[in-house]
Predict the 3D structure of the following.
Amino acid sequence: MNDHARQSAPASGSAGRSGIAPSVGPGQGIGLGVDVGGSGVKGALVDLATGELASDRHRIDTPQPATPEAVAGTIAEIVEGFGWDGPVGVALPSVVKDGVTLTAANIDARWIGLDARSVLGAALGGRAVTLLNDADAAGLAEQQLGAGRDARGLVMMLTFGTGIGSALLYNGVLVPNTELGHLEVGGAEAEHRAAASVRERSGMSWEEWSVEVTAVLRTFEALFAPDLFIVGGGVSKKAHKWLPLVEVATPIVPAELRNTAGIVGAALAARQDSVL
Ligand code: BGC
């Protein structure tokens, strides 16, 4: 993955080439988002009006084991590196309710049932922290500033990676924590059939994989009747190889924000919380 993908010019007077600024806070429509994944923790300043990154993307390997304390330390390193003193949005592969992480996919089991907002808030010197599921963050970003920006009705964003993440938005409002990757499709969990990692591991061709993706998406269609599917994750970069092979009735488009959607969505969620 290219850490420096989608760089844009630094916000004037803030981050320089290294992405490190002496002191940056909210205002001028800038936010900070962090995306915690199984292999990397990535953060950047975000232009909240456009979704463009307003700094370089700073990536640090996810500590192993990815315990809450270790990950909190990594997030603090990223946030402090930007000299940021405003609210921080954090996207995680977890079901998140009111700052508590209820599940943990590809991160340590000690996140389960944890008051993660307090743990991260303490590690970040009392800064306000907004936590949300990683696919929900990507869905928010795509709906507001990416492939779904003109879409109304029911938008379903799916991220194909190690697992399958889902975000459901109705007229722009997120219904959080849908976890549709765990829905059973033909006797197996959707993400065990059609995650991008399954294709890589099993050596499936794009044709074979698209049959699995079709089965999963048809099940979601039958249950939710969405108006638009947005497909994200690393494989969305190669959408031309497989998207035309997916046979669904619902309009389906690749994500536009690519690997920054989690960061952008986390920053948007933090802004939303701070104005509530
Ligand atoms: C997890 C979700 C997560 C998705 C993508 C799934 O296995 O259950 O919470 O959004 O992977 O990371």
